[in-house]
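Sequence dictates fold. Below is an illustrative record:

_____
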Amino acid sequence: MNILVLTEYRPALFPATALAPTQGERLWRDFGKYVDVDEPSFKNGHQWCLRSKGWVGDIPLGDGILLRLQPKVALSNLFAMIDAAHGFKDFKVLRGLTGCGSLEEYFDRLATLLARLVLDRARKGYHQKYLPRTDVLHLVRGRMDLRRLAARPWDPAVRCDYRERTGDINDNRILAWTLRLVLRASDCRPATRSHVRHAFRSLEGLVQVTPVLPADCLGCFYDRLNADYEPMHALCRFFLEFLGPTLSAGDRGMLPFLVNMNDLYEKFVAGWTRGHLGPSRHLDIQHDVRFGEDGGLKFAIDLVLRPGAGQPPLAVLDTKYKVGRDVEESDVQQVVAYAVAMGCREAVLVYPAPPNRRVDTHVGEVRVRSAVFSLGEDLDQAGDSFMKELGVPG
């Protein structure tokens, strides 16, 4: 397979022969959300000019061409960010993944891990529950519907309310649908696909394989009977969020492993900060503020720092996944507007690397400053430095 590699936000030039015109058109038409595409012309030396828009992962274009979107951060940090962003308690199995040197290796090993966990559970028996059922039966089961029986004495069938033990429950449906999606992805070795297929078949006769959403992996109840489902659901949520359908039919039904780094950085900073705040601080995530006569205008503020839940805000924080640039006036205007809307005097712009020129100034009564939660080092150490920069006790 011919792999074309892009690093997020960095334009890359490829010979005019690297892509057929039909492939370039498909990339622009179907995947323009992820990649900027300029066709060969005199402006770019008659070469293809491609630029990732902040997404990380793979885009198969057919005919042996794969577009690989690489992150600016180390791969180990990428998965640690996903861990912190989603609060996966047992997703720190990354200790077995740190030897991976590419995205496809990570994808492959995560798929192997999920299949192994599912097969371990299959050997013990899948979790089942008693669910209420109502049916018309020829033998009495559970409680009879006496009112219907009295109204239809000639009918030998009796409607009964009963409870039936079944494995066709949400816990198992999440596993089955995720394994099905992984099988349709392209970044798995034959041995891995065999393990995943074996795990999927162990569930296929137990549940109806119906689509589930990443949100379905949240809010599940775990006890001593299904505690081992929690890490499996964490992995499932990862795959469900970062595997998506393509926009056209074909033999490759999925986009393997596409991650929006802007969104991930925002969720990572929020998840890590909330998890490391001391008892004297509280963090609101994606706080909505409505204003206007009819409340038709809204600000969605990334982070609001408070001394306690429901207390007046200390500061508003806005994450900006930008590297090697000056602080933009529009960003300052945005975070100042957030501070004014919240009635606080501290506004912080959070970057993954120091901007070319740091900011610490006042706009009216609002102090605006830049802070860094670095992605270029150990994330816990970077987080400690970030907290000190904010002046927040951990």
